[in-house]
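Below sits my pick:
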Amino acid sequence: MNQSNKTRIAHLAGPTATIQNTPPLVTSNKARARHGLPLLNDVDGAPLKHDALRAQRLAAPAKVYVEQFSGHPLEADAAELYAPPDGYIGADGVFRKERRSPDDRPVYEIELKPEDGLYPLPYMARQADGSAWEEECTTPGGAIYRQGFFPDGSRSFEEIDRLSIGVEGTASLLSSIASIDFYRGVPPSGFTKGLPAHLRTDKGEGDIPPEVRGTHFFGYKPYHLGVGPPRQALAKATNDMQALASGGDYDGVIWTQGSPQVEESAYWFNLLIDTDKPICCNAAQRPQGQISADGPANIVDSARYIRSRVWADEQGRNRCGVVVIQEQQLFAAREVTKADARPGGYVAAGGHGGIVGNISHTGRIALTYLPLFKHTYRSDLKITALPNRVKAAKQAGSGIGLVDIAVKDGNGKLLPDAIPVVTISNDGSYSGMGVGHDTAPEIDLMASIEHKLGLGLLTGFVVQGLVPYGRSPSHTRMKLMRKAVFSGIPVALTGRGAPMGFADPTDIHIAAGNLTANKARFLLMACLLKFGSLPPAQDPDNPTRAEMDATRKAVATYQAVFDTH
């Protein structure tokens, strides 16, 4: 039983997360001057006035003296309201309790201790050859680099707790209300040399073995070495999130990820995670510590939201589904969409609601809308409701057959190789080959269909077509999509961009409502895990009436889920 009044939160690290990234650690001018290195200069060629102060740990206690009334320009204006200083610093630089001269400066004596935590200080490190650090790489565009991303959430949360100041003027914004454990789901950085168990800051057992970029962790910087997570990584993220959200140890979970992708993972969790607890997703447009960093406030708002229980219904179950909390707004996972790379750059796509609520600058939370669509424990696609095996269409000789696909293992965990391959097909007007030029129509799409059928995996297409109907303006392209359907490959139709109208279903195509193409892709992937491929016709170009009826029946099953999720 939880004996603390603090909210219990799990943080799960996601990939390419700017919110868990920092600006490059650049060697300070203090260090450069000490070692005779070229200084960082302003536009006039003079040394920069200030060094960047970076959060670091003291190795030993240090006593410092702070000038009285230096915290604000108008402190001295109310000097009579203040207690006397701790002492005075004379012209000789010596601290004394009593003033000896009118020129002695009143000061506060502060003992800084290592156990106090992080302090902002000039960065004194240099490269192994003695040169200054200028960026993540040892040389511009080089292959030898340092990692700017955090390997789990502990350091970013510690910096927020230690250095961020709330509206009341106090710190400890996270630790004062929550106890937080950290997990490395699909992290943005890793330990290339491994890490002994006793040094771990995340929750996990044993040593961390050496990790490989692009296999165990996924960051986008340095840009020329950036790597995103593969399709299979979605299974690990899902299994980790399901374990945390349903395990009973936590009141809620926070997921952090890169700002362009967080909307997709949030919707995926909304569809698959079987939990009645809140899941909050956060991103940032600017790294932690950079001017106007938005990530710290988003994370604190997520902790406040979980603690508030405003999300709970009469039975204590989450009524809001997965939310993305950005710039004091609560977005429903189904609708949230990144529109620009700036704070406030998220919108509710679809034209009908999408903003669940807001958080005031003082932390007051108000709900403004509740999602109608099914989510989390109410979802028909939750992981606990998925079958262990489904059928996938595969080219077999001159025909198309069905092969068995394992979806979950014996412990109910999603298998990495089960994650479906769904492609977004997009084209615009005036794109057809034209009469008399149709000897090789839509070669790219024909090759894609053949490739999918050769994989023996769960596959599908999303057509990003006209608004709001979802149909491609190319008749030839739609004809090929008909062939895909009768080959066993489901096709969902959605309008371009962020449509406000609803795509129209056909007898063989799924209408993706007002979803964006990216959201429709994830919903189709989840449906494939639930239902498997469509029944293929013996000759997809000329299906029989019975084959057409079987396909229509299967598509209707998909459509029912698209209409409610």
About this structure: The longest strand covers residues 105-112. The chain has a mean pLDDT of 94. The longest helix spans residues 545-562.
